[in-house]
């Protein structure tokens, strides 16, 4: 028997040595380290399938963020499960009712994230096509739209604690409808989406809501191919709706006008056949008549379409055109200058003006006997467009002489010869009043060089910018000449200098031809062509051409012609200043016939 002896057992303790790994790579020795896990889309799918609200919230918010930062990453054709889930959460709070307010808010947040993602993703053509092919999506959109209209405009939806979510979702939904409505074709007269959009026009005053709705309505008028559709939603558009759409032109908003123009183009060119008219052409003519039966529509279209045709085009302003030179003589004589003799008033005109109170009498006399003069003059300190001058003393003396019977006294008496006439304006006040009679004139002092060296220069007090008339004019003509806008004169300093080499009285034809060439070059400088017009101008021109060809040229209705003439008298000046409007086919020569 062997006795157990504990001391005979030797215990050896082995100390484990650890190797030092550079750069902290020791962590890689642990199980699972370096595994990146599933990719983002797989992680999103797992979260959506988990049914856990926190995971779903993360997945929807992540997808929404990706739709902004990486829109190409969202592809419903490649990931149909994602599209299906987004639609499910988008519609859920509007189809599944709950009395739990917290749960409702959570569902609305899910719905808003889903809707925003759908709205962003629908900007891609592939996603548009996929969403448009989803069964019942249009029906679900109508359900949501009905609820939001009830909350937004009618107050029939209880959303006191979620109004911000409803308001934000309403705008996103309209954007989604605008995109997908291009694919909803052959819509019937009873189409719910069409009528709900029409109802929004009756309530909304928001510019961008109206633009989105009008664009969607225009898309819904599209029909498939050449099939004879006799129950299209186009014929459910009321006259009131057409009048409302046309009235938007009066707001002079380019974005809104463009949306209405697109709608009218679809409305008038649609090949949908009306039940009462057997052919496409007759149906189109009937719709045009519906549009123009309203006198208000006609006036607005005749007024606004020509303006829309030329809006933002690089056109010459008729008010700034160079003045066409006249066939004037080179010079009157070797010593030609400003006329010094002032014409006298006729007895009839004198009897009228002499009874005026001052300063009206002085202003009226000045305008009848003097005229404003504009031409180039480079004298320092003087308006370069002013020419002609009279001395202040000669001006006062001529006025005093014209009305001498007012201030002269009878021999041996201190009373005026005709006390019933108002007193004459004092000389100082008379000179001050000249600038009121001729707003473009200038009172100034000119220094005259002395005849001999060492003498002080003489000072001459003049009125610049007027000169005596050759013949007296009546009061109306005088007022018009004095107060009309100062004409634009040529910038060439030689334009108003006669050629001294030519004989006296010679007609300076070369000068006239030069001015005519300058004017022609100016008005033909902006070559315009209808084929290169922006969309607003192009559609406006086509619509105007269609209306004129269908109504004015064929029927010659005097009522339409009168309206067109009354609203577009300004057009003649713009076409004169911009002949390329005719040459480029933007306006038709036939349209000018209705302006005469």
UniProtKB/TrEMBL annotation:
RFX-type winged-helix domain location: 362-470
Domain of life the protein comes from: Eukaryota
Keywords for the protein's UniProt record, in alphabetical order: Chromatin regulator, Nucleus, Transcription, Transcription regulation
SUPFAM superfamilies membership: ARM repeat
InterPro entries in the record: ARM-type_fold (IPR016024), Chromatin_Remodeling_Comp (IPR052406), DNA-bd_RFX (IPR003150)
PANTHER family in the record: AT-RICH INTERACTIVE DOMAIN-CONTAINING PROTEIN 2
Name of this protein: Chromatin structure-remodeling complex subunit Rsc9p
Species per Swiss-Prot/TrEMBL record: [Candida] anglica
């Amino acid at each position: 028997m062997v006795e157990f002896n504990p001391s005979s057992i030797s215990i050896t303790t082995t100390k484990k040595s650890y190797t030092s790994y550079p750069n902290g790579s020791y962590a890689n020795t642990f199980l699972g380290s370096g595994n990146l896990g599933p990719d983002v889309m797989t992680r999103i799918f797992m979260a959506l399938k988990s049914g856990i609200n926190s995971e779903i919230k993360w997945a929807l918010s992540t997808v929404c963020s990706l739709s902004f930062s990486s829109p190409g990453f969202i592809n419903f054709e490649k990931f149909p499960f994602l599209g299906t889930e987004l639609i499910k959460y988008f519609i859920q709070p509007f189809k599944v009712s709950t009395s739990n307010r917290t749960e409702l808010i959570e569902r609305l947040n899910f719905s808003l994230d889903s809707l925003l993602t759908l709205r962003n993703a629908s900007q891609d053509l592939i996603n548009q096509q996929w969403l448009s092919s989803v069964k019942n999506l249009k029906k679900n959109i109508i359900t949501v739209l009905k609820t939001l209209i009830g909350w937004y405009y009618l107050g029939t939806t209880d959303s006191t604690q979620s109004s911000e979510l409803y308001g934000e979702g309403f705008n996103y939904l309209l954007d989604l409808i605008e995109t997908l409505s291009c694919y909803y074709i052959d819509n019937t007269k009873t189409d719910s989406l069409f009528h709900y959009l029409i109802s929004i026009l009756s309530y909304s005053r928001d510019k961008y809501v109206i633009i989105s709705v009008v664009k969607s309505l225009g898309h819904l008028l599209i029909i498939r191919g050449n099939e004879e559709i006799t129950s299209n939603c186009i014929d459910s558009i009321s006259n009131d709706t057409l009048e409302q759409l046309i009235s938007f032109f009066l707001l002079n908003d380019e974005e809104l006008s463009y949306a209405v123009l697109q709608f009218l183009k679809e409305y008038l060119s649609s090949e949908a056949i009306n039940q009462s008219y057997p052919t496409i052409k007759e149906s189109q003519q009937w719709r045009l008549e519906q549009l123009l039966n309203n006198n208000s529509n006609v006036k607005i279209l005749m007024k606004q379409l020509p303006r829309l045709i030329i809006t933002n085009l690089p056109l010459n302003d008729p008010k700034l055109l160079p003045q066409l030179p006249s066939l004037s003589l080179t010079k009157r004589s070797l010593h030609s200058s400003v006329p010094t003799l002032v014409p006298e008033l006729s007895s009839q005109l004198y009897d009228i003006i002499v009874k005026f109170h001052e300063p009206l009498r002085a202003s009226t006399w000045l305008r009848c006997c003097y005229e404003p003069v504009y031409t180039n003059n480079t004298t320092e300190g003087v308006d370069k467009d002013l020419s002609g001058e009279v001395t202040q003393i000669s001006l006062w003396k001529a006025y005093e002489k014209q009305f001498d019977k007012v201030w002269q006294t009878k021999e041996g008496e201190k009373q005026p010869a005709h006390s019933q006439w108002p007193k004459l304006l004092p000389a100082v006040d008379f000179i001050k009043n000249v600038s009121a009679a001729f707003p473009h004139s200038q009172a100034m002092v000119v220094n005259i060089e002395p005849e001999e060296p060492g003498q002080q220069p003489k000072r001459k007090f003049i009125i610049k910018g007027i000169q005596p008339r050759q013949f007296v004019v009546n009061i109306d003509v005088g007022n018009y000449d004095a107060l009309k806008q100062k004409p634009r004169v040529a910038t060439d300093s030689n334009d108003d200098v006669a050629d001294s080499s030519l004989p006296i009285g010679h007609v300076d034809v070369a000068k006239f031809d030069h001015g005519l060439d300058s004017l022609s070059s100016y008005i033909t400088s902006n070559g315009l062509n209808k084929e290169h017009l922006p969309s607003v101008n192009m559609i406006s021109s086509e619509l105007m051409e269609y209306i004129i060809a269908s109504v004015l040229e064929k029927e010659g209705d005097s009522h339409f012609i009168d309206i067109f003439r009354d609203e577009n008298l300004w057009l003649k000046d713009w076409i004169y200043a911009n002949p390329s409007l005719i040459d480029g086919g933007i306006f038709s020569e036939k349209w000018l016939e209705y302006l005469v």
